[in-house]
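agent> step 3/5: call structure_predict on target 'MarR family transcriptional regulator' (Alkaliphilus serpentinus).
agent> reason: downstream docking stage needs a structural representation; sequence fetched in step 2, passing through unchanged.
tool.input:
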Amino acid sequence: MNPNNIGRHISYIYRAGQSYISKELEAYGVGSGQYTILLVLYKKDGISQEDLANHIRMDKANIGRGIKKLMEHGLIIRKTNPNDQRAYCVYLTDKGWEIQPKVYEVLTNWLRVLVKGFNEEEIQMSQELLQRMFQNLCDFEK
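tool.output (status=ok):
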């Protein structure tokens, strides 16, 4: 096993995916760093900015920049957290909800590119192996 191959392949897939997603969502004001914020909000609208950063596993400064960009495009708003006046919660606007189908379409199309020629068993195995790698990373970071 050449450990450089795994990292190189993961890195290339990640970069190519970010480029594709950015290009496809550019017209909606969503960059590669912002779509993950939208994905969380589609499931947990009104989440605190800190919980959002923890959920995405991204530092607060990057989350802040992503939120600012999405706010500039009218896709989300921030409101003072009713439970903590020093913190903010993030909410989707109507415009943010309207692009949800497009966001999911772009991500589905990217997944189709990645698994072209895979059978269901190979897709399932790929998901399981990547989940195990992710869990190893989470355990390592503790």
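agent> step 4/5: record observation. The longest strand covers residues 84-92.
agent> proceeding.
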